[in-house]
Amino acid sequence: GFCKSRKLVEARGWLNMIKLHGLEPSAVTYTTLMNAYCENRNLHYMLDLLSEMKAKSAGPTHVTYTVVIKGLCKQWKLKEAVLLLEDMYTEGLTPYQITYNTIIQCFCTVNDLEEKKIGVTQIY
């Protein structure tokens, strides 16, 4: 509810409270909050949560990576998005079609033909 109503301070407070009570947030919990940060163009907090999530047993999922890649693309961080795509492969996760589409759409939007060529080559 807090994320949908853009009350991100409150949402982060609940996440912290969950952890204080000795519970480990699920991948869905982390990803939901990261998506809210993405929608509010707050890359710093989104990437902090990704780092925190990678250190926990509830590691990033396909959906998590797609959300973060979408956030990076919205801020024109194309190189970082491609690096995150490579991280997915390293983690043994095969990106979904929507993940590829998100990156390709971003490359097309900025008309960076060389980057598009590199991105498509790395994807396939």
From TrEMBL:
<protein>
    <submittedName>
        <fullName>PPR domain-containing protein/PPR_2 domain-containing protein</fullName>
    </submittedName>
</protein>
<dbReference type="InterPro" id="IPR050872">
    <property type="entry name" value="PPR_P_subfamily"/>
</dbReference>
<keyword id="KW-0677">Repeat</keyword>
<feature type="repeat" description="PPR">
    <location>
        <begin position="61"/>
        <end position="95"/>
    </location>
</feature>
<dbReference type="Pfam" id="PF13041">
    <property type="entry name" value="PPR_2"/>
</dbReference>
<comment type="similarity">
    <text>Belongs to the PPR family. P subfamily.</text>
</comment>
<feature type="repeat" description="PPR">
    <location>
        <begin position="26"/>
        <end position="60"/>
    </location>
</feature>
<dbReference type="Pfam" id="PF01535">
    <property type="entry name" value="PPR"/>
</dbReference>
<dbReference type="InterPro" id="IPR011990">
    <property type="entry name" value="TPR-like_helical_dom_sf"/>
</dbReference>
<dbReference type="InterPro" id="IPR002885">
    <property type="entry name" value="PPR_rpt"/>
</dbReference>
<dbReference type="Pfam" id="PF12854">
    <property type="entry name" value="PPR_1"/>
</dbReference>
